[in-house]
Amino acid sequence: MKENNTLAKLLGAMGDKFETAYAHCDYPCGIYDPHLAQLSALTVVRMVDLMNAIPKPKPENPNELLDYVHDMARAVEVKEKHAELCKHEIRIIWGDFIKPEHVKAHPELHEIVFNIMKFGGKSKQEPDREAAMKLLNEVNKFSEIFWEIKGIKTKRAKAPYDPHEEVVYPQL
Amino acid sequence: MVPYAKEGDYAVSTNIFFKIGIGDVLVFRSPVDGTLLIKRVKKLEPTDGGSRFFMEGDNRMRSTDSNSFGSIERKSVLGKVIFIARGNRGR
After folding, report:
1. Which residues of B touch A27 (CB under 8 A)?
2. Chain A residue with minimal CA distance to B81?
3. Cα–Cα distance between A75 and A67 in angstroms, integer?
4. For position B90, what pLDDT does the model report?
5. What is the pLDDT of residue A18?
6. Which residues of A63-102 are buried (b: 16+ CB within 10 A; e: fewer)?
7. Of A27, A130, A148, B54, which residue is 20 to 30 A from A66 by alpha carbon distance?
8. A14 vs A10, A50, A98, CA distance in Å?
9. What is the dihedral of CA A37, A38, A41, A43, to 10 degrees?
């Protein structure tokens, strides 16, 4: 087991004749933070609020219908995207960062992740504010456990922007 | 597998060897999707017909290994790495 630069040059000169073997699925950056999952959950809540606030079109005005469909389509797309992003971010932390000893110390972790997947899915399926809030609440619980594992205290506070719902902040 | 192997290096392997032991670096097919992977044998798990191999990356941060896809069987192993040639392949 040794390095061999001459051989590497020789192999390089042979062009792309070798199959690539991967050591990682993700780049080993070691960066884990539930912040993006929290923002995504907040965005889902915000999109449901915006969808409810879009003025309903009057049947006699086709332009209003066009505006309504357009605005609604944009809000739905963002809601879908962020519900999925929230699930994705939690899956990464759960699968790559969380270890069996963490689950032993926090046996509720698996149920919280399960709930995030469930409410994330429901938030995609329906413009349901209650489901979106449950998603946010579960992500908050997950975040508190994550920071506790890291040995960092947290506090809950209302986000200083719409939808002004409570999120978990690490006290760095 | 940093620092043993970095992105762009050439892993020279052989499929002629007597046995696989703990600490050996293997090139093998992922049981999930058939991707070619390179990781180190962490544990041997005896079976009726031989052993299964529990594989881990040297760099545990975000390494997808036997902790997620379980141990691998002998027939998934393509070869044992005999040395790493530092290269810039794919960079």
Report:
1. 62
2. A1
3. 12
4. 47
5. 75
6. eeeeebeeeeeebeebbeebbbbbbebbebbbebbbeeee
7. A130
8. 7, 58, 42
9. -110
**Nearest CA-CA distance, residue B45 and chain A, Å:** 20
For A93-142, the pLDDT digits (tens) are 998 788 888 999 999 999 999 999 999 999 999 999 999 999 999 999 99
Tens-place pLDDT, residues B27-51: 999 887 788 899 999 999 999 888 9
Domain B10-85 bears CATH identifier 2.10.109.10: yes
Residue type, A72: M
* CATH annotation of A32-170: 1.20.120.400
pLDDT of residue B48: 86
For residue B91, pLDDT beyond 80: no
Peptide bond into A170 cis (omega under 30): no
pLDDT at A16 over 70: no
Where do the structural domains in chain B lie, given as residue ranges?
Answer: 10-85
ipTM over cut 0.85: no
Q: Where are the domains of chain A?
A: 32-170
> By the 8 A CB rule, do B28 and B74 touch?
no
Contact list in A for residue B84 (CB cut-off 8 A) is: 1-3
